Amino acid sequence: MSDHPSLQPYADAWTQSIEAISELVKPLAEAEWNRATDCPGWSVRDVVSHVIGIECELLGDPRPIHTLPRDIYHVVDETSRHMEVQVDVRRHHTGPEMTGELEYTIIRRSRQLRNEKRKPDAEVRHVLPGLPPVTLERQLLLRAFDVWVHEQDIRRALRQPGNLDSAAALITRDVLVDGLPRVVAKKAGAPADSAVVIDVSGPVEFMRTVRVDKDGRGSVNGSPSLGPAATLSMGWETYVRLACGRARAEAVAGDVKAEGDAELATAILNAFAVTP
Fold first, then answer.
1. Do the beta carbons of residue 247 and residue 38 sit within 8 Å?
2. Same domain, yes or no: 143 and 206
3. Angle at CA of residue 186, ends 143 and 270, nearest 5°
4. Could you read off the pLDDT of 196-249 as tens digits, one per residue?
5. Is residue 99 part of a domain?
6. CB atoms inside a 10 Å sphere around CB 117
7. Structure-derived torsion over alpha carbons of residues 78, 79, 83, 84, reported in degrees to the nearest 10
């Protein structure tokens, strides 16, 4: 346990998810590592490579010196290019090589987190390139979120559902909800002095109202709205897939119930992704 108990919930949530990934991939046959996931362009092997790579960078390991092929269609900007390097260098690694490196990385990172001496508000690097530093607490929260999302990528690819209501799932809910005001007010252009209700059911159940003020700024809370401009109802897995860019609105149309302003509802669903 670190010297600061406020960091422990994030470390525990991260541990549960990354150990779940390790257990999921340990028995895979070589061909199963190549199964496509919902994460655009990435196989199960690629997702695991990404997780390993980020954790190694947080351990202080040097980034690989590697030139990416030019024909990787999902590399569209500097962020995706940065992320792809750790993935592409492992594309020819065998299953045993992958599981061995993952297990060793978990051991090293767990030790680092147990021995953490910095305060929760200490300024540390962001894992994405070009973004300003964050607090240590925020960094750990984002790691719990990211690893859980990738755990679910792998679970869907392998058809092994689980941990949909884990501690990291609740952290993920909060991270994704924080992105709703930007989605509704800025990206979808909801009118001033309007409200939009998002109603989610399933293992993680919640209702949030996004309100757009007279200046077009959005905010979100749990209080109900009388006469919202639009209401979107969906299951938790559908919400995660949309908000994390794992599915387009038209692909999950049958899993979403939209009421109110149909044009606004469509604009919101088309702009729902909040992850890079």
1. yes
2. no
3. 75
4. 999 999 999 999 999 999 999 999 999 988 899 999 999 999 999 999 999 999
5. yes
6. 8
7. -40
| Domain final position from 162, 187, 212 | 162
**Residue 46 main-chain phi, psi, to 5 deg:** -65, -40
In this predicted model, what pLDDT tens digit does every residue of 250-266 receive, in sequence order?
Answer: 999 999 999 999 999 99
Q: Where are the alpha helices (DSSP H) in 89-126?
A: 95-114
Name the DSSP class of 166: S
Q: What are the tokens at 138? A: 């925020």
State pLDDT tens for residues 75-127.
888 889 999 999 999 999 999 999 999 999 999 999 999 999 999 999 998 88
* Of 97, 195, 11, residue with least CA distance to 2: 11
Query: Would strands 206-212 and 123-124 be described as parallel, antiparallel, or unpaired?
Result: unpaired
Q: Which of 153, 174, 180 shows the shortest CA–CA distance to 237?
A: 153
Amino acid at 166: S
Per the structure, the count of domains in the chain is: 2
In this structure, which amino acid lies at residue 176?
L
The answer to whether residues 275 and 243 touch, using CB atoms and an 8 Å cutoff, is: yes
CB 259 within 8 A of CB 269: no
